[in-house]
Amino acid sequence: MKYKACDTLLNVCARCQKEEKILIVTDPDSLEVATALWDDAEDFPNKSLVMMPKQTTHGEEPTALVRAAMMEADVIFRVTSFSISNTRARREACANGARDVNCADYDMRMLESGGLYGDFVGLIPLVNRTAERLRGSSIRITTRMGTDFTASIEGREPIAANAVTWEPGVACFPPDVEAAVGAVNGTGNGIVYIDGSIPHPLLGPMKEPIRVEFKESRIVDISGGEQAELLRRVLEAAKDPEHAYYMGEIGLGMNPACTLSGRMLEDEGCAGTIHFGIGDDQAFGGDNACAQHLDLIFREPTIWVDGTLIMKDGVVTG
C-alpha cells in the first residue's frame, strides 16, 4: 500500500533525486513504518535499509555500523523508536553533507492522517519570520495556568525548523515545524505548568498538569499526580544528575495539522504549544552534553523577547 505521507517525506521534505544514496535506519519496533517508506521509494535504486537494536531513550548514540552507513549517505531517514537527533553520529553525518530526516517515534496512524499532511512549504515564511523574532537578549514565557519563566537567550542563534531538508548538511523533523532558540545555560528561572504532553513511552499526553520549578536552568522540583512521579523516574533513570535535569531548548510549535498524541515529532510541532528540551542542548548552542533529551510541552503560551510580544495565548503576533 502506498501512503501520501511517504511520498511527502521523499519528494517534498527531502526532494530525493533518483541516483542519490538513500539510507533508511530503523529498529524492530519501527520496521513496519520503515518498510512502508522503503516500498514507496521503489523509484530510487540506490536505497538501503539498516536495522539497529531498539534504544532506551532519546539521544543515545547508534551503533558504530549504523554511524558508518550514515557517513556514506546523501539522504538519511531515521525511522527509529527513539530519536538520535541529539547525537554525535547525526551531527557528523550532516557535517559530511547528508540531508537528514528524523522519523523517530512514528506509527502507522501518522502515515494515514495528521501532521504529515500539513503544508510544509506554505509554512516556511511564517516559521522563518517567527524564528528571527526570537533573536534577542531575554525571553519571558507565561500561561493562564500560572507559568512564569525567564531566561537569557543572548548570543543564541534562532532556529527555523521547517520540515524540509533541501541543502547538504540540513536536518528536518517532519511533522514537527517549529521556531526555536537556546536558553543560555544557568539563566532559566521560574515555574512551568506542563499541560500538553511529554513524548515518552511512560508519559504522553497530560492527564493533569505537572508543576516544574527551574532554578538556574535546572529542575529543582516536580509536583503533581501520577505523571509527575513518572517524570521523576524518567529523569532519575538517565543516571546523570549533573546534566539530565537542565533545560536548554525553547521551541514554538507551528504545524496546525498536528495534535497532541504522545508521539514526539507530532507533539513538538503542534501549533499553539511550546516545549522545553531537557538534557542535551548541543544542537541549540549549549554545552550540556547528555545521553537524554526529553521534551516538556505546554499549551497556549504568551511570549516576550526583550519586552516585545511574540505570541499571545499560543497565537503568533505581528
Give structural notes.
The chain has 318 residues and is an alpha+beta fold. 23% of the residues lie in helices and 29% in strands. It has 8 helices and 20 strands. The strands form 4 sheets. Strands 14-13-10-6-5-18-19-20 form an 8-stranded antiparallel beta sheet, with helices on one face. Strand 19 (308-312) and strand 20 form a beta hairpin. Helix 3 (64-72) packs parallel to helix 4. The mean pLDDT is 95.
List the total number of helices: 8
Instruction: Write out the strand line-up for the largest beta sheet, numbering strands in chain order.
Output: 14-13-10-6-5-18-19-20
> Could you give the distance between the termini?
43 Å
Based on CA atoms alone, the radius of gyration comes out at 18 Å
Strand content: 25-35%
User: Portion of residues in helices?
Assistant: 10-25%
| Coarse morphology | globular
Which ranges are low-confidence, i.e. pLDDT below 50, for 5 or more consecutive residues? none
Structural class: alpha+beta
How many strands, which pairing sense, and closed or not: the largest β-sheet?
Answer: 8 strands, antiparallel
Mean pLDDT: 95
